[in-house]
Input
Amino acid sequence: MIYYIISWVLEILLIVVPLLISVAYFTLAERKVIASIQRRRGPSVVGIWGLLQPLADGLKLLVKETVLPSNANTILFIIAPILTFLLSLLGWAVVPFGSHTVLSDLNIGLLYIFAVSSLGVYGIIISGWASNSKYAFLGALRSAAQMVSYEVSIGLIIISVLLCAGSLNLSKIILAQESIWYIIPLFPVFILFFVSALAETNRAPFDLPEAEAELVAGYNVEYSAMGFALFFLGEYANILMMCALCSILFLGGWLPLFPVLPFTLIPGPLWFGFKVAFMAFVFIWVRAAYPRYRYDQLMRLGWKVFLPLSLAWVLFIAGILVGFDWYPLY
Amino acid sequence: MNIEALLFYIFSSIAIVSGIMVISSRNPMHSVLFLVLVFCNAAGLLILLETEFLAMLFLVVYVGAIAVLFLFVVMMLNIRITELNESILRYLPVGGIILLIFLFEILSVINGDLVPFFSSNLFQFEADNIILSTNLNTILWSNQIDPTSNIEALGNVLYTYYVYSFIIASLILLVAMIGAILLTMRKRVNVRKQEIFDQVYGNINSQVRYVS
Output
């Protein structure tokens, strides 16, 4: 029993610790990539090429003073960042890193990820309300409305992928792409999913919640030190989660580019890492390249363009699968 | 005590306590958050029942969508915390009657082996146990595995036998949605709107002109 519990905790730590390290270095990668796109140098002082910068930032946030606003609802104010951080870690329990490398091989893994990401709204709403500040409240309302509306189209896109794979199990979805990655037959769906993922994680060009020109910084204005750090970690872990989901659903997860010799020498988890890193690079690239949307444009895009389009794709794919008798056997 | 029973008691006791907190907490925002906690624990109970698909739908629909709308409405309404100190006893008769009806329904629905003093087939259950215990060697393990997952079982029933009920339910939802849209829609005059179609499909001659 005690060995069971110890191995259980170790397995969880083996996912969470590398995830947090990768989140830290994702922030560094973001600053470096944006710097090189804007022809600057980026962080280069702490450590060689600035490689120790994320650790320095983390230390700075850790030793700062935690400010609790006197008019805030203290319990909810403290719970909100913890909730956001925990929910961003929860989804990683079902992500398959390699062909048998997965913490929990759920039959409803995709639905689980969807449910966990739909719970992520709560941390934001609670923090906005509990801060008792107008800027935080407005930011939280915007952010929550944006996440709720883009979740609808993400759900429909997930349905169209799982119609092709015939399973909600993430490993089976990847194995269904052995002959061809879904990015090739489902390329428009991939674009829809990527843009929805940008909006779902509140990234540029949809970073309306922290539009620094209108709102100060969105729902986390009142947070300092570790509260802010937890929000930050949660947000970036969510971005990495979306990248991982993109590479599972469309880029074939751990599968190599071609199933021939030089490509099959590289182990599966490394392929998965390459794909996640590529998607993360595209996230950063988009942030550096595009200006911010206006709020009504964002809502119009979500409800009037993406929702009908993804619904139509579900019908179209279902029709093709039934018409050509291509639906997968389970 | 095995771990499932322990989890059952944890989930159900948290659900009951937070259900009481929903109606007794003075701040409506706290009420909604406790309601969310009730939903989460109910999803945990559904997972214990091995109906994981329903549990996930519970999370997505109730917690992810409906409770968020509740939260929005409660946040916007700006209810004062102090004005909710009405007498609790005012609603006690009606609530008590509804509580009794629910209690009776649940007790009459619950299987006999959970509430043995209320059941009529208590002895039948024991007889089944005896029969099971006499021929222990004849368990067919292949029957103990169910190869179909939750979703497949649900889909096989829902889209074949109950397809008309399914379509009718979806039509009812559609009518409700259209009704809600119709109730809140009003035509505004003199509103400047961005016509994206005109912007995208205009050429330079139609969009740019010399002023003087």
